[in-house]
Amino acid sequence: xxxxxxxxxxxxxQVVDPPEEPALAEAIRELAREAxxxxxxxxxxxxxEASADLKAARLVARPASNGEVAVAVMWTDGLxxxxxxxxxxxxxxxxxxxxVWEWNITxxxxxxxxxxxxxLGYRPESTKPSxxxxxxxxxxxxxxxxxxxxxxTVASGALTWxxxxxxxxxxxxxxxxxxxxxxxxxxxxxxxxxxxxxxDITEERASVAALAASEGLLRQLASAIDEVFWxxxxxxxxxxxxxxGYERIWGRTCQSVYDDPKSFIEAIxxxxxxxxxxxxxxHVGYDVVYRxxxxxxxxxxxxxxxxxxxxxxxxxxxxxxxxTDITAQRNLEEQLLQSQKLESIGRLxxxxxxxxxxxxxxxxxxxxxxxxRVSEDGVARADLELVRDxxxxxxxxxxxxLAFARRQVSAPQxxxxxxxxxxxxxxxxxxxxxxxxxxxxxxxxxxxxxVDRGQMEQVLVNLAVNARDAMPExxxxxxxxxxxxxxxxxxxxxxxxxxGEYVMLAVSDTGAGIAPDVxxxxxxxxxxxxxxxxxxxxxxxxxxxxxxxxxxxxxxYSEIGKGTTFKILLPxxxxxxxxDKVDASPQRSxxxxxxxxxxxxxxxxxxVAARILREQxxxxxxxxxxxxxxxxxxxxxxxxxxxxxxxVMPQLSGxxxxxxLLAQRPTMRVVYTxxxxxxAIAQHGVLEPHVDFLPKPYVAATLLAKVxxxxxxxx
Length: 715
Description:
The chain is an alpha+beta fold. The chain has 22 helices and 27 strands.
């Protein structure tokens, strides 16, 4: 029997061409199983009965990457060279792609398998195997460490040695080797020889390095982005990985969810758990939106997507997911929905106010006609005055509705909000009363804004009144101004605020504060929490419309028991028109003899306007529409000095009518009238300098003054 034998164990654990001795075959199989299970070289001693020629052997098993195992059996009590055994073992070693070496420590003689020559870049015919030849191929940066540990192991009395190092290939390249050896010793423990296996693990280490680099890159990416990446086992009982974004969004440490996976569920808002829990552990994936509660009490909206990860056999091996904080997006959507709701309400309110203004014009004018026919001290006179006063109050309400709808006419001019705050200081003190302290904090060097002065004064008064009512026992009202630069990060979370330079006007009180369920309705017209008779519910709606018409935004911050702040943001203005409003007071009424073409689709209002003008000596032509007005003008060869036209009419608008008539009669003057101005003559509700406009409702004196001033200005 040869002193050195070798067997190959296949992937099914069967010994190829097994030895006849059952005990030895079983020992080979057991050692091969251990090598496969541990994926490492395994060794054990084997002993026969005393009657056998060779009684003791050392078994060494080396697992190959293809699942097979090479097992060497070295009989240690009668070792001698056997050519057949070496040849057979060489074939086995070639199959495993590993190199085998033997070194006689006593004689310093060595033996290498063919694979050892190939790995080290030597030729068998020109290089004699030796310890020195092996050392010469160890990488210069590793050689000192490797040889020191090798020699220390041999001298220590240990039976095995193993090391990983870089080696030099014959082609000049560098590889990575895993080298292991068994040390045979005599009875006194002196080393006699070593037999070992050297494996080229360059590709394995490159794969490990690439994987580590990939994992490192993934972790860097996961740390740099806002989303949360997570991995759990198929049962959902173990968190395998969660990215650092978890700590930023959930407000809890990553370690906490590793230690207690249920803490993830506990963070979900109790009202949202019923829709999330049935989806877990997501073997088919899910896409869900829910809320979480951070340890500090903040609520965040989360968009969570999960999908199963399968192995080659289709089994779910883990579940991966991505969670995104969409709180800012949800807030922006809510702002947009609120803005759209207010816009819809505004369109409705504006339409109602427009039609109501037509009726109020007729009521006010007819009341004036009737009042001229009754005595100053009669009972009917008093009744008519009540009608007139009620109509004027109704006109004020419609004006507020138009302000909310952003359809009132404004004459914006460059304005310093610091100067405005100083100007209304006395008025505000009278409005809020002595029990409320007024404090102003005005920023020096404040930029200018383009806004209607009168409307802005009304905004301040409305906010002051609200603040006063929120502090019945007294408190402090603060007016503060400042310059702001809005960046994209802020603009993306506020639907109505663009990037740019703004001027801020803040009105703060120390009152009771506004409840969250009330806060979302405060800009809606006719919404009020005041007692009946204490308010119309149009004050804040008017503020909203005025500020939005000026391309600004009004924001509200409130806390129960601490107070409320209304923050107005208006775009910085570098230049703008200054309008000199026509004094249309009743004292400016004048008679005339010019020809006026009155175009109004409302028959009652058209009749009232024509009567007012005729009673003052004007020649009046009437038309029910734009097309009718063209026909009337064509049939009137004499001059038409002034066109008084409604803006919004069927088929042909007042603006288009004026354009056509002016092409034929360039000296004709035009006065537009409307209940609102959502059209070409007042783009975005801003009165253009060349346009003469008479808002509805109007009384006789106002109409006559406007007509007379426009006609006189043409001379």
